[in-house]
User: Which sequence fits this backbone?
């Protein structure tokens, strides 16, 4: 479950900064059948959580209506230099986590 | 509610019967949710609270050419007092196979309640977004859209 994550390197205290993520995932709906008519089992990312300085910024609970390779953009409030941690998990138990640091001036 | 359930059961049975002939060719097609399913989900979410129009904005194209990845933005633009801050957004699709689309929660480090993502749409339908605020109020917006090429069921 690789992902592309984009956050600014620096931000000013008290300002909003944007966090963008695309997760590489099929988001198989569970409503489709393969070439010979066998149902393709559901396989989706269930949850995405973003924390900054240990506190939650954003949490998404996902359903099959979210497109393949799910993309999200949202905003955190710059406070002080520290880690932005994104973690996500799918319904087969796969988990992933990425951490990056934002410098707050 | 009971009428809808019966109707869905009838359709499920009928399509299962038809499926005996058709499944080898087209595969099983799921029943779609109904506006009543969405109304029920919203009732579960808000309880007895009143839902008001306004505050929240749901941005979706009115005419969708390819429904596998439709850009969706949910936002509350106007600044709110702390005791009314937005806790979460809840998005429902009235005629997708499942009524739930996504639920977004905003924590203490969130700067503003805005989220952008991409969704799938099974057919032309109404998409509803609800905002839940810290003071216990609920706000809604909806978009009726036309889908030229459907997703989910291909």
Assistant:
């Amino acid at each position: 479950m690789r992902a592309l994550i984009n956050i600014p390197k620096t931000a000013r205290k008290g300002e909003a900064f944007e966090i963008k993520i695309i997760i590489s995932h099929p988001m198989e709906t569970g409503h489709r059948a393969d070439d010979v008519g066998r149902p393709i089992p559901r396989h989706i990312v269930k949850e995405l959580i973003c924390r900054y300085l240990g506190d939650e910024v954003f949490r998404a609970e996902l359903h099959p209506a979210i497109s393949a390779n799910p993309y999200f953009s949202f905003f955190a409030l710059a406070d002080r230099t520290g880690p932005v941690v994104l973690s996500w998990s799918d319904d087969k138990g796969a988990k992933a986590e990425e951490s990056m640091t934002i410098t707050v001036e | 509610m009971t009428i809808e359930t019966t109707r869905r059961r009838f359709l499920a049975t009928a399509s299962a019967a038809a499926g005996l002939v058709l499944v080898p060719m087209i595969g099983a097609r799921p029943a779609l949710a109904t506006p009543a399913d969405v109304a029920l989900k919203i009732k579960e979410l808000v309880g007895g609270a009143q839902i008001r129009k306004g505050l929240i904005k749901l941005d979706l194209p009115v005419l969708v050419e390819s429904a596998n990845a439709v850009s969706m933005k949910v936002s509350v633009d106007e600044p709110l007092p702390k005791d009314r801050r937005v806790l979460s957004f809840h998005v429902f699709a009235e005629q997708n196979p499942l009524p739930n689309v996504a639920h977004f929660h905003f924590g203490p480090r969130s700067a503003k309640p805005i989220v952008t993502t991409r969704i799938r749409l099974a057919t032309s339908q109404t998409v509803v977004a609800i905002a839940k605020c810290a003071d216990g109020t609920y706000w809604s917006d909806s978009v009726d859209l036309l889908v030229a090429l459907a997703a989910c069921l291909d």
Notes: Chain B touches chain A at residues 23-24, 27-30, 68-70, 93, 96-98, 100-112, 114-121, 152-154 (CB under 8 Å).
